[in-house]
Input
Amino acid sequence: MTRTVAPRTVLCVGAHPDDEVLGAGGTLAAHAAQGDEVHVLIVTEGSTAQYDDPSYVERKREEARVCADRLGVETVHFGDLPDMRLDDVPHVEVNAVVEECVASVEPSVVYTHSRQEVNRDHHAVYDSTLVATRPDSGVERVLAYETPSSTDWVGGGTDGFHPTVYVDVTDHLDTKIAGFAAYESETRAFPHPRSEESLRARATMRGAAAGVSAAEAFRLVTERRGAP
Output
């Protein structure tokens, strides 16, 4: 029996510009290629804590838009909360940014940060995503992605990122790399995790674990099903 899957609405939540493509860029491109409506939410302005230049906020936004266009993302939403300071922002304010986007977009699938990593902005976004995707939200599936240069730097005293879901991105890896290349302010030279070579190596490694040429890895957070 052949089952036809209706197009879905997908939302990827990231704390900073480039988190979305680093963690789920190939998967978002795959969603777009199969006709799903894909949105990205960037919760912070992604600049002020790192660069003493207000113009970087708009630069990061433009890079995010170019990346989204390359991945096939329909809309990038911006939250404008302070970069690298979400642990100082009241939890309800972070919740509000994610809740407002979920209510507007009405996704059935949401991708967000893992809590098994070192970046506290990412922790806050993960926690707020759980609030925004509670049972009455209409969201059916929530998955946590890994973030190169953050998830993989967790120390031995902390539970690390252990994927439970792998998505074959063999046909979309080049699109992910092209999307990340839009973030000229964030790319680094190999062997830094935010380099083309490292991203390809990670995709190959995750693919080997899943029996495909290239994959992205996720941890299933929530799944609500009707029929089995």
In short: The chain has a mean pLDDT of 93. The chain has one domain: 9-221.
